[in-house]
Amino acid sequence: MKKTTAITISMNRTNSAVDGEQRMTSIEIAELTGKSHFNVMKAIRNMEPAWVNVGQFHFELTSYTDAQGKERPCYSLTKTECLYIATKFNDEARARLVLRWQQLEMEDVRRKKEEGRWKKEDVRYLPSPQEILDEADDIIGEELDELNSASDDCYSPTEIGKPFGLEGRDLNSFLCDRGIIQWSKGQWRLTPKYLHQGLTENRSFIYHGRNGHRKTQSRLVWTEKGRDFVLGLIG
Predict the structure, then answer these.
(1) DSSP label at 162?
(2) Where are the chain's structural domains?
(3) CA distances from 63 to 4, 7, 69, 209 (A)
(4) Dist CA 97 CA 82 (whole Å)
(5) Measured between alpha carbons, how far is 65 from 208 in angstroms, rounded to an integer?
(6) Most CB contacts within 10 A, which of 75, 151, 192, 213?
(7) What does the pLDDT look like over 46-66, one tens digit per residue?
(8) What is the CA radius of gyration of the chain?
(9) Crossing angle (nearest 10°) for helices 91-114 and 26-33
(10) CA dist., res. 65 & res. 6, Å (int)
């Protein structure tokens, strides 16, 4: 059952700690990512069923009082929940969330110092930006596993060409010369004649660009039927 809590949040401070756990509201997520609160709420609602299906709780639904004094709904999310939602954002928006979480956790350490509850272990276990990014990558990895399920048993051009002394790029050039694949929108794709024959699938992966931003790209891989088709051409 979805948990609902009525709270009042000032418009210039939207994060809160509940039972000692640092949280962030959908309002601040919208401000950090440059998205409208309506669209952030919509994204959270759309992603909630999958989160619940893997054994997690419903997201905490709360409320805030806007500048006109009206009560409006919003979500209050833990760090892990935020990073899950951030998988749908672009690299810059996700980076802003990561840096904000680091700031919140540093503020938590300072607050504990002021209250006399700070221990050296608090700094020792304070996650670095890279550790937070790694946690986000783990969440993204789970989505990639699901996304790539159809290509699990497929073969890369390198795997098909290796027995013949062909590297992946050589095999792709061979297939391109025969009008089977073409380079389009940053990746190899089947030409229209060979579409919808069960020859290939797309396999997605994440990499870092020169500017450090995370990017997602797809590569063409061949089904068993597609591999047999290619082997027939080579042989």
Answers:
(1) G
(2) 15-147, 150-234
(3) 9, 6, 12, 39
(4) 8
(5) 40
(6) 75
(7) 889 888 887 778 999 999 888
(8) 24
(9) 130
(10) 10
